[in-house]
């Protein structure tokens, strides 16, 4: 029996009440699915860790617990071990090396989706359809903008994936555009 996206979404809906956190997880899923397609990999298999990676943040909102303590529930729900490992590897503090392209992509897309979302939300359109890499680059330099986004992690993620930073930004913008409505970024 395989673990489905529908089962993953049920877990998210059960454990994540914050709409913005759900949207973040959907954004990371979309970016992961896009990169899977570019790598010739299974988008469903890559999407699962993207969708589930922060499911326990409201339950375990500290680095002492997230995502480590969330692993037990996911394992009990039947989430495959490779997905659990991928989720664990997205956090520096677990000291788990990112060994696969999927693990590298999860780390590389996590923080970046937050920055891209913030950039879209401050546009007059409040949309992804007209967001450009140049716009994100302009906001990148303003350390007060989206101050919670770890830009060093974004840079490291792009390096680990062997993708130039601004190409990576453009890739993730492209990945998010088809799901802009689900992310609340279809515009006003």
Description:
The model has no long low-confidence stretch (mean pLDDT 93). The chain is 58% helix and 0% strand. It is an all-alpha fold. The chain has a single domain, classed as Hypothetical protein af1432 (Orthogonal Bundle). Helix 1 (5-15) packs parallel to helix 3 (43-52). It contains 9 helices and no strands.
What class do helices, strands and sheet pairing give? Answer: mainly alpha
Q: Globular, elongated, flat, extended or rod-shaped: what is the shape?
A: globular
Strand elements, count = 0
Outline the biggest β-sheet: none
Please sum up the structure shown.
This protein is mainly alpha-helical.
Q: Secondary-structure map with pairings?
A:
Layout lengths: L4 H11 L3 H21 L3 H10 L18 H6 L4 H9 L11 H21 L11 H8 L10 H11 L3 H12 L12
Helix pairs in contact: 1-3, 2-3, 2-6, 2-9, 3-5, 5-6, 6-8, 6-9
Keyphrases for this structure?
Hypothetical protein af1432; 188 residues; mainly alpha; 58% helix; single chain
């Amino acid at each position: 029996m395989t673990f489905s996206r529908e089962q993953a979404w049920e877990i998210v809906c059960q454990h994540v009440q914050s709409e913005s956190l759900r949207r973040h997880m959907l954004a990371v899923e979309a970016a992961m699915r896009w990169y899977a397609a570019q790598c010739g990999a299974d988008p469903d298999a890559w999407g699962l860790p993207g969708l589930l990676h922060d499911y326990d943040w409201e339950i375990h909102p500290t680095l002492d617990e997230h995502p480590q303590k969330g692993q037990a529930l996911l394992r009990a729900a039947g989430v495959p071990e490779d997905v659990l490992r991928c989720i664990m590897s997205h956090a520096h503090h677990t000291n788990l090396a990112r060994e696969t392209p999927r693990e590298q992509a999860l780390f590389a897309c996590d923080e970046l989706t937050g920055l891209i979302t913030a950039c879209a939300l401050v546009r007059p359109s409040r949309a992804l359809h007209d967001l450009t890499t140049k716009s994100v680059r302009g906001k990148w330099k303003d350390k007060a903008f989206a101050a919670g986004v770890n830009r060093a992690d974004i840079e490291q993620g792009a390096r680990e994936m062997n993708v130039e930073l601004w190409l990576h930004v453009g890739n993730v913008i492209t990945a998010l555009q088809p799901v802009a409505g689900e992310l609340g970024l279809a515009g006003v």
